[in-house]
Specification:
The complex is a heterotrimer of chains A (181), B (172) and C (356). Chain A is an all-alpha fold and 181 residues long. Chain A has eight helices and no strands. With 172 residues, chain B is an alpha+beta fold. A three-stranded antiparallel beta sheet of chain B has the order 2-3-5. Chain B is elongated. Classes of the chains: A mainly alpha (181), B alpha+beta (172), C mainly alpha (356).
C-alpha cells in the first residue's frame, strides 16, 4: 500500500508540473501550434489527475471532449489558416509590463495561499456534496448518475446550452457565405 | 458533317449494385481463392530470379561484344559503318593502322580500332550496328545482366568488348 | 497480498506488450507474404524459414539508417509525433480485457491492465488522440505533401469517429454498461448473444470505421502514394518511420480487439472450447478457472488474428477511395445508417425489456 501511495504522489506531482508548465507555454509561446499544444498538455494533465483521483468518468470526458474533439479542431484550423506569419507586437510601456507581471505574481500568490489554506483546513477534507462516492456507487456508477442528472433534472438547461452552439453555427455559416459573395 | 451516334453507357445502379457490399464480397472471395491457391498450392506467376531464369528468345539483343578470330584479334576494321548507322550515337571509334604481323591466317585487316567505346547508357539495343557491320565484328550477346556500380563502367571499351562470349546458337 | 497484485499487474502488462509487439513482425511478414499469395507471387522467403525473419532484418536496417530530419522542420513536434502515434493505441490496449480472471494463491486477478469502469470511453479518448500524431507529423515536417496527408488523415479520422461512436452507442444501449468486462460477460451469459447477432449493421459500420481509423486500405488516403508520395510521413526515415509503422499495426491490433470485445464476444470461449477446458483441467488436474482463463485468452487471440487477416485481405482486394467518395461514405451513408441503426437498437432494447 505504501508503494502505491508514493507512486500516486509522484504521478500527481508530475501531472501538476506538466499542467503548470503547459499553461506557461500556452501563455508565453509565440508559435500558435505551440500554444495549442500547451493547452492540450494542460487538458491531458488535468484529465490524468482526475484519473489518478479515481474519477475515471470525468477523466475520460475531459480527454474525449477537450483533447479529442475541441483541441483537434483548434490545431486543425491553425494549420489550415497558417497563422505562422502573424506577429503579436505588443508595444507596451516598460512600467506597464512590470506592473502586469507584478499583478500576475500577486494573483498567483493569492491562489497559492488560498489553495494551501483550503487543503490544510479540515473543512475541505470532509465537505462532500450530495453525491458521495458511496452514493454514486450505490446508484450504479458515475456514468449512470451523470446521465440521469443531465437528462432528467437538468434537461432543460442541457438543451438550453445547445442554443449558443446553434447560434455560433449559424453565425459561422453567415460569415463564411458573406465572404464568398 | 455527318451525325455521330453516341451511346451513353453510363447507367443508374440498381439497388443491389448501389449497396456495393455484394460486389465487395464477391471480390473478396476471389482474392481469398487466390490466397489459398498461393498459400496451399504455391501457385505463382513469378520466378525466383537468380536461381531460376526466364528463357529468352535466341534473337534477344543484350550486351555488346566484338567477335575475335583465333588469334584473339578483333574482326573490326574500324570502317565506321556502325558509328554512322547508330541512331543513339553511342559508338565512338578511333581508327589506327594495323601492323602486318597481326594479319595472320590470310585475313587482311588494314585498319584497326585504336579505341572502340560503346556508351551502354545511350544504346537503345536496336541492333543496327550488327546489321551494318561488314565483318560481323560487332554483335549483341544474350546477356541482360548489365548493371554497374559506376556510370563510367557502363561505357564499354575495347578490352571489355573483346571478351569471349558463349552460347549464341541462333545468332551466328 | 498486495505484492501479488503488483506482480500480476506487471505480468499483465508484459503479456499484453509481448503479444502485441511480438506479433507485429509476424504481421508485417504476413502482410507481405499474404499479398504475394493473393497476387500469385512468392514474397519475402529468403531471410530465415519461410522468410519469417525478414521483419527482423528490416528492423536492423531501420536501426542503422541515418537519423535524418529536414532542416526547416519544427524539431520538437517532428520527434514527438511518432511517439504519440505509438503511445495512443498502446494506452487504449490497456483497457481491453483478455480473459475473465485467474486465481493465484487465493487472489482473484482480473485479466485487464487498467480496471476502469468506463473502459469504452477511455478507448474512445485514446482513439481520439490518434489524430495528433498525423497532424503533428504532417505539419512539423514542413512539406506540402505531408500537410496534405495530415489534412486528409485528420478529417478522415474525425469524420469516421462519429459513425464509430454511434455504432458503439447502439451496443452500449443493449449492454447497459461502459465496462468492457461486463459487456463480455453479457455476451457470454446464457441469456445473451454476440453483439453482431443482435446488431449486425452496427457491427458492419464499426468494422468499416476501424479501417478508416487505422488508415488502412481502402481508406489509406493520408499516405496515398500515387498522389502525395507518402502522406504525413514523407519526411520520416529510419526508426522514426519504424515507429509510425509499428503504431499502425498496434492500432490495428487495438481496433481488432475492440471490435472483438464489443461485437464478437470478446474473450468468451469459442464454440467447442468449453469441452476442451473441462478435458484439460480434469486430465492435468489444473484449477478449472485458470485453464478457462487461458482458453479465453486464446479465444480473443484467435478472434483478433482473424480480424487482422481481414485487414490484410481487404487491403489487397479493394482499391483506394477517392477523397470525396470517402467523405460521402462517411457522412452520407454511414452516419445516417448509424443513426437509423441506433433507432432500431432502441426499439429492440425496449422490446426485449418489455418481454422479459
Amino acid at each position: 500500500m505504501d508503494l502505491s501511495m508514493t507512486l500516486e504522489d509522484i504521478f500527481l506531482f508530475a501531472f501538476g508540473l506538466v499542467a503548470v508548465g503547459g499553461s506557461l507555454v500556452m501563455l508565453f509561446a509565440k508559435n500558435p501550434i505551440t500554444v495549442a499544444l500547451g493547452l492540450l498538455s494542460v487538458l491531458l494533465a488535468t484529465g490524468c489527475t482526475y484519473g489518478l483521483m479515481g474519477e475515471h468518468m470525468v477523466a475520460t470526458l475531459q480527454i474525449v471532449v477537450y483533447a479529442g474533439a475541441i483541441m483537434v479542431l483548434f490545431v486543425f484550423s491553425i494549420m489550415l489558416l497558417n497563422l505562422n506569419n502573424l506577429k503579436f507586437d505588443l508595444a507596451w510601456p516598460r512600467v506597464l509590463f512590470w506592473a502586469s507581471v507584478a499583478g500576475l505574481a500577486a494573483f498567483f500568490a493569492l491562489i497559492c495561499i488560498n489553495v494551501l489554506y483550503f487543503f490544510q483546513s479540515k473543512m475541505a477534507q470532509h465537505q462532500w456534496g450530495e453525491f458521495t462516492p458511496e452514493k454514486v456507487s450505490e446508484l450504479g456508477g458515475n456514468a449512470r448518475v451523470l446521465s440521469q442528472a443531465l437528462f432528467s433534472q437538468n434537461y432543460f438547461s442541457f438543451e438550453l446550452v445547445s442554443i449558443p452552439l446553434l447560434i455560433a453555427l449559424v453565425g459561422a455559416v453567415v460569415l463564411a457565405k458573406r465572404k464568398l459573395n | 458533317m455527318g451525325k455521330i451516334n453516341t451511346v451513353n453507357v453510363s447507367k443508374k445502379y440498381t439497388f443491389k449494385e448501389s449497396l456495393y457490399l455484394v460486389a465487395i464480397i464477391q471480390g473478396m472471395m476471389i482474392t481469398l481463392k487466390r490466397f489459398f491457391e498461393g498459400f496451399v498450392l504455391h501457385k505463382k506467376f513469378t520466378i525466383m530470379y537468380p536461381e531460376e531464369r526466364r528463357d529468352y528468345s535466341q534473337r534477344f539483343r543484350g550486351e555488346h561484344f566484338i567477335s575475335i578470330d583465333n588469334n584473339k584479334t578483333e574482326n573490326c576494321t574500324a570502317c565506321f559503318l556502325c558509328e554512322t548507322v547508330c541512331p543513339a550515337e553511342c559508338i565512338h571509334i578511333v581508327a589506327d593502322e594495323r601492323e602486318d604481323d597481326q594479319n595472320l591466317y590470310g585475313v587482311k585487316k588494314e585498319k584497326k580500332p585504336l579505341s572502340f567505346d560503346i556508351d551502354a547508357l545511350r544504346c537503345c539495343f536496336c541492333g543496327m550496328c550488327e546489321e551494318a557491320c561488314p565483318k560481323d565484328a560487332i554483335k549483341l550477346s544474350r546477356n541482360y545482366e548489365m548493371s554497374v556500380l559506376k556510370r563510367d563502367d557502363a561505357i564499354y571499351d575495347l578490352d571489355h568488348l573483346k571478351r569471349e562470349v558463349k552460347g549464341l546458337k541462333g545468332r551466328g | 497480498m498486495d505484492q501479488i497484485m503488483w506482480i500480476a499487474l506487471f505480468l499483465k502488462i508484459a503479456v499484453v506488450l509481448a503479444c502485441c509487439m511480438g506479433s507485429v513482425p509476424f504481421l508485417v511478414w504476413f502482410e507481405r507474404r499474404g499479398s504475394a499469395w493473393i497476387q500469385g507471387r512468392v514474397g519475402p522467403n529468403r531471410v530465415g524459414p519461410f522468410g519469417l525473419l525478414q521483419s527482423l532484418a528490416d528492423v536492423l536496417k531501420f536501426f542503422f539508417k541515418e537519423d535524418f530530419a529536414p532542416k526547416n522542420a519544427s524539431r520538437i513536434y517532428y520527434y514527438l509525433a511518432p511517439m504519440i502515434a505509438l503511445i495512443a493505441p498502446l494506452g487504449a490496449l490497456t483497457m481491453i480485457p483478455f480473459g475473465s480472471y485467474v486465481e493465484v494463491a487465493g487472489q482473484v486477478i482480473n485479466l485487464q491492465i487498467a480496471e476502469v469502469n468506463a473502459g469504452v470511453l477511455f478507448i474512445l479518448a485514446f482513439a481520439g488522440l490518434e489524430v495528433y500524431p498525423i497532424i503533428l507529423a504532417g505539419w512539423a515536417s514542413n512539406n506540402k505533401y505531408s500537410v496534405f496527408g495530415a489534412l486528409r488523415g485528420s478529417s478522415q479520422i474525425v469524420s469516421y469517429e462519429i459513425s464509430m461512436g454511434l455504432a458503439l452507442v447502439s451496443m452500449l444501449l443493449a449492454y447497459g454498461t461502459l465496462d468492457l468486462h461486463s459487456m463480455v460477460e453479457w455476451q457470454s451469459s446464457a441469456a445473451g448473444m454476440w453483439g453482431c447477432v443482435m446488431n449486425p449493421i452496427g457491427a458492419l459500420i464499426f468494422w468499416i470505421c476501424t479501417f478508416a481509423e487505422t488508415n488502412r486500405l481502402p481508406f489509406d488516403l493520408p499516405e496515398g502514394e500515387a498522389e502525395i508520395v507518402a502522406g504525413f510521413h514523407v519526411e520520416y526515415g529510419s526508426m522514426k518511420f519504424a515507429l509510425f509503422f509499428l503504431a499502425e499495426y498496434v492500432a490495428m491490433i487495438m481496433a481488432s480487439a475492440l471490435l472483438a470485445t464489443v461485437f464478437f464476444g470478446g474473450y468468451s470461449l469459442l464454440p467447442g472450447f468449453s469441452h476442451l477446458v473441462g478435458w484439460v483441467s480434469s486430465a492435468q488436474g489444473w484449477p478449472l478457472q485458470n485453464v478457462k482463463a487461458f482458453f479465453e485468452f486464446a479465444s480473443l487471440f484467435l478472434k483478433v488474428a482473424f480480424f487482422m487477416f481481414v485487414f490484410v485481405w481487404v487491403r489487397w482486394t479493394l482499391p483506394r477511395f477517392r477523397f470525396d467518395q470517402l467523405m460521402d461514405l462517411g457522412w452520407k451513408i454511414l452516419f445516417p445508417l448509424a443513426m437509423l441503426n441506433l433507432g432500431y437498437m432502441v426499439a429492440l432494447v425496449t422490446y426485449l425489456a418489455r418481454s422479459h
